[in-house]
């Protein structure tokens, strides 16, 4: 299986919201930290993960419930996201992004005097 013959798949994602941030979780099985790229251009956040194709070159699938390929997903960010504070971690094929809200956008309580 050659790298250029592999397709790109859109990884499954969950997006949760707290008062301070959006939390994005993406399933990217087979991707390691050195093969994932998170980029931001204007309001477009792009995640790309590439699997190590050598692992699959000598194998023939007998039965497969998921596709083997690279991953790519793009999200459009609103102005409420603090672009400088975005963080990403990858553990066991699960990419987690924290997209903090700008301070002026965070929910807050107003004290009544």
Automatic annotation (TrEMBL):
Top-rank taxon: Bacteria
Domain SHSP: 3-113
Leader sequence residues: none
The family this protein is said to belong to: Belongs to the small heat shock protein (HSP20) family.
Protein name: SHSP domain-containing protein
Protein species of origin: Candidatus Lambdaproteobacteria bacterium RIFOXYD2_FULL_56_26
């Amino acid at each position: 299986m050659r790298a250029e013959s592999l397709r790109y798949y859109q990884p499954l994602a969950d997006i949760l919201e707290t008062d301070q941030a959006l939390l994005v979780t993406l399933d990217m099985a087979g991707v390691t930290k050195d093969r994932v790229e998170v980029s931001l251009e204007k309001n477009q956040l792009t995640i790309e993960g590439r699997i190590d194709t050598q692992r699959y070159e000598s194998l023939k699938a007998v039965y497969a419930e998921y596709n083997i390929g690279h991953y790519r997903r793009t999200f459009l960010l609103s102005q409420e996201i603090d672009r400088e504070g975005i963080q990403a971690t990858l553990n066991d094929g699960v990419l987690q992004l924290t997209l903090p809200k700008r301070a002026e956008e965070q929910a807050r309580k107003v004290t009544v005097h």
